Backbone:
């Protein structure tokens, strides 16, 4: 049976956390989600269409390196909600569609006239939890890659800080529900970090050290936090 | 995945292709006790680049093909014949290409026909049409027990010869030939896969489009 065509979207908030507090965040997330973390190591390549090719467009090729065999995905991240509609929601809502592809996808897109704009490596972990929607919390260190595809030589862009993203999939009709779910979940993380729309400047939170210390001294605390 | 071959019906010069040969192929299979199982479809779309300046020399492909098979609804295959490249994806990658607007759908070939069980073989007979125009008739032969191209080569060659002889005795209006791409050029292994099938069908499309009907 062919899947019905729907406009797929992604709702996302993000924040930063000091690397020294990541372990505490992991303890917190373990308690909230009740599942094992998923390790992340993703080589991300941003490809842009050549100058003579149609409307300017870009795709991301994501190569997940944590599995025994690399898993490749094409991700198209499109326009975000703007104006009044955007003002009404506390998360970024943007078009997003992913498709698994075979490992020769980069050669394929090069043949189509796409060029590599930049590449980076994201290393960290993610937790998934089912609320009204499936929420993903990822904690990653973003690495720049100094030479073409030299992921073994990747270095963190900000060594002392890591990026936290809380996201959920939705459609054009259901994004309010997804935004509400991730906003609600984000409140649990408030002692350690502040999450907001990407592009809205936030810093580390002043309560982070205290909260991290408390979490680490209690160890894994599933019951107290769920 | 079982090994497949694809036979292409080539009408003689001056003979117009009609659905008669499709009906004849189906009848031959049924007369030989092949069991009709279901209707089946497939689809090949030729994509061409949308260029801002048609005159500017571009180091990009002139076209690529997107192929879907009804029996594999979660999968889509793409072939760039000029680069000997075949890529597999989830079924929604065409939707992403629609959004990118860097390539447009230029030609669509629809494959419609029947699937038959024939002993250890599964046969499919397709009418290949571009809009309402019949462009080709093809027959897919799948040998179910084995996935190795090398191990099945002799048997599949023999099966082809049998069908070639049978059809030549039924009609003088043309003949079948075996579409036989060099899978090694596409870096495909001896173990048969959907990527091999995509290469077969892309060759069939090239043949169909080069035939004047």
Residues:
């Amino acid at each position: 049976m062919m899947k019905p065509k729907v406009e797929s979207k992604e709702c996302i908030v993000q924040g930063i956390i000091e690397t020294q507090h990541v372990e505490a965040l992991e303890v917190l997330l373990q308690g909230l989600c009740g599942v094992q973390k998923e390790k992340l190591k993703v080589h991300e390549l941003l490809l842009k269409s050549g100058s003579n090719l149609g409307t300017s467009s870009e795709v991301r090729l994501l190569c997940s390196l944590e599995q025994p065999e690399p898993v490749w995905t094409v991700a198209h991240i499109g326009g975000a909600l703007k104006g009044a509609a955007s003002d009404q929601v506390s998360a970024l809502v943007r078009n997003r569609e992913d498709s698994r592809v075979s490992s020769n996808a980069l050669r394929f897109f090069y043949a189509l006239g796409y060029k590599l704009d930049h590449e980076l490596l994201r290393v960290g972990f993610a937790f998934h939890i089912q609320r009204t929607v499936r929420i993903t919390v990822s904690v990653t260190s973003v690495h720049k890659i100094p030479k073409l595809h030299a992921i073994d030589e990747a270095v963190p862009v900000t060594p002392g800080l890591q990026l936290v993203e809380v996201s959920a999939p939705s459609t054009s009709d259901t994004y309010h529900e997804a935004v509400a779910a991730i906003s609600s979940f984000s409140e649990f993380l408030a002692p350690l970090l502040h999450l907001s729309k990407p592009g809205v400047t936030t810093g580390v939170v002043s309560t982070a050290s205290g909260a991290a210390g408390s979490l680490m001294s209690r160890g894994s605390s599933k019951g107290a936090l769920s | 995945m079982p090994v497949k071959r694809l036979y292409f019906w080539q009408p003689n010069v001056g003979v117009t292709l009609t659905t008669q040969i499709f009906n004849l192929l189906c009848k031959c299979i049924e007369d030989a006790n092949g069991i009709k199982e279901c209707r089946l479809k497939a689809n090949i779309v030729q994509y061409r680049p949308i260029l801002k300046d048609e005159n500017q020399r571009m180091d990009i492909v002139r076209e690529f093909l997107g192929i879907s098979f009804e029996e594999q609804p979660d999968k889509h295959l793409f072939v760039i014949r000029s680069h000997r490249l075949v890529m597999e994806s989830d079924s929604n990658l065409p939707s992403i290409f629609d959004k990118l607007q860097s390539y447009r759908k230029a030609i669509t070939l629809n494959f419609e026909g029947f699937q038959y069980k024939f002993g250890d073989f599964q046969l499919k007979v397709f009418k290949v049409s571009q809009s309402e125009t019949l462009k080709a008739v093809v027959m897919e032969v799948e040998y179910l027990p084995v996935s190795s191209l090398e191990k099945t080569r002799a048997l599949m060659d023999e099966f082809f010869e049998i069908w070639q002889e049978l059809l030549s005795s039924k009609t003088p209006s043309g003949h079948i030939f075996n579409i036989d791409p060099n899978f090694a050029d596409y870096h495909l292994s001896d173990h048969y896969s959907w990527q091999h099938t995509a290469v077969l069908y892309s060759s069939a499309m090239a043949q169909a489009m080069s035939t004047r009907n």
In short: Chain A touches chain B through 30 residues (CB under 8 Å). The beta strands of chain A are 8-18, 38-49, 58-64, 71-80, 92-101, 114-130, 134-144, 155-156, 161-171. The helical segments of chain A are 22-33, 83-87, 105-111, 175-188, 208-218, 222-225. The first helix of chain A runs from residue 22 to 33.
